[in-house]
Amino acid sequence: MRYNQGMDAKNKKKLLLHICCGPCAVYVMEKLKTAYEATGFFYNPNIQPVKEYRFRENELERVAKLKNWRVVYMEHEMDRWFRRVKGYEKEPERGKRCSICFHMRLEKAFAYAGANGFDIVASTLSISPYKVAKQVNEEGEKLAESFGVEFLAENFKKQGGFDICRKMAHDLEIKHQDYCGCVFSKVEKKLREKE
Q1: 53, 94, 141, 171: least CB-packed within 10 angstroms?
Q2: What value, to the nearest 5°, has the Cα angle with vertex 61 and ends 17 and 48?
Q3: Which pairing describes strands 14-18 and 71-73: parallel, antiparallel, or unpaired?
Q4: Which residues pair with 3 in a beta bridge?
Q5: Is 120 within 8 Å of 152 (Cβ atoms)?
């Protein structure tokens, strides 16, 4: 685990934002910083191959430096992710495998938040057009109950959030990925393109 330290404080509630990638974070982090003392949290063991994981991690580091965000970077743990989703390899995107994946990533965020004095956990995952906000929020709300840390259930796609996010990422020259991150979603995307 490592982090870069941005300057952010001001008597606001402490929010830990689970970040899936730099492009999605740009809009969500800037929006949340107005109301919270926000820290990013990069934990995405689903992202494959490792080259893609490093690329997304590096892009987030680059934007975090530009925007002066504090971000915590956890270990990749890809093997652990494969063990968790075993038996759900053929699930379609937005199916049970995604719920397991959201739960695993948010669980790590809640554990970190609870151990480090954060008041609230949120996630950039709901901004993606490939994700169902309700599915993400259900996992967050379950974990909030068990960890005793609040969850900010949001749909950041609303009110043109994804389009704003894309424009902000484009202006910062951050590449937007074309698949969720896991090998199964990449294969599914390639099959859709063939049809």
Answers
A1: 171
A2: 80
A3: unpaired
A4: 72
A5: yes
Structural domain count, the chain: 1
Distance set, CA 176 to CA 19, 31, 59, 157, 164 (Å): 14, 19, 10, 15, 13
CA angle 150, 143, 13 (to 5 degrees): 20
Q: What is the CATH number of the domain that holds 180?
A: 3.40.50.620
Q: What is the pLDDT along the chain (195 residues), one digit of tens a residue?
A: 443 444 445 578 999 999 999 999 999 999 999 999 999 999 999 999 999 999 999 999 999 999 999 999 999 999 999 999 999 998 888 899 999 999 999 999 999 999 999 999 999 999 988 889 999 999 999 999 999 999 999 999 998 888 888 888 888 888 767 667 787 776 666 655 666
Please name the residue that has the structure tokens 């902000």.
168
Taking the C-alpha atoms of residue 27 and residue 87, their distance in angstroms, rounded to an integer, is 35
184: its two tokens: 């199964």
Can you give the residue range of the structural domain that contains 22?
Answer: 2-194
Whether cis (ω within 30° of 0) applies to the bond prior to 23 is no
| Nearest residue to 24 (alpha-carbon basis) of 187, 140, 150, 172 | 172
Write out the two tokens for 132.
């169902």
Closest C-alpha to 107, from 53, 49, 71, 151: 151
